[in-house]
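Hey, why these numbers?
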Amino acid sequence: MLDEFSGKDIIFVAGGIGIVPMRSLLKAVLAKKDNFGKLTLIYGSKTPEEILFAEEMDTWRRQGMDVQLTVDKADARWKGNTGVVTTLIPKVAARDKNTLGVIIGPPVMYRFVILSLKAKGLGPEDIYMSLERRMKCGVGKCGHCQINSVYVCQCGPVFKMSEITGLPEAL
């Protein structure tokens, strides 16, 4: 997958515990940072206390990644953005046909993030998302992850939006 991302700007959008599976991708991309364009992480959490990997995010910033954080509910100490992740997407620069989006988070977030990324000029071939939330057994036996004829555990869990456009149950 990293070869497909080569030379591109990447906007990573994570919500809540979606940052956990995204972390390995972020680390892999940062390890080969020179192969990519501008790297941006937009991460949203319910509260400042629930932000995961905060120390690593400082390291990612020092490595050249633009890290944008937001929380749904701020406390008195929070100085950052308050609101859902889509409030930060308009502030991110996107170069036409040279920007990819990667989304991992709660299902309710996907539709709104996709709309925001489309407004930035990203098309269905430019948006990657994880449907991992639907998996149980991971080997295609239980059928829990099945969306029409597609087994998420066998064909994914990461899909381009263009691959699941005909599967309305996916989102």
About this structure: The first strand starts at residue 9 and ends at 15. Residues 15 and 24 are 15 Å apart (CA to CA).
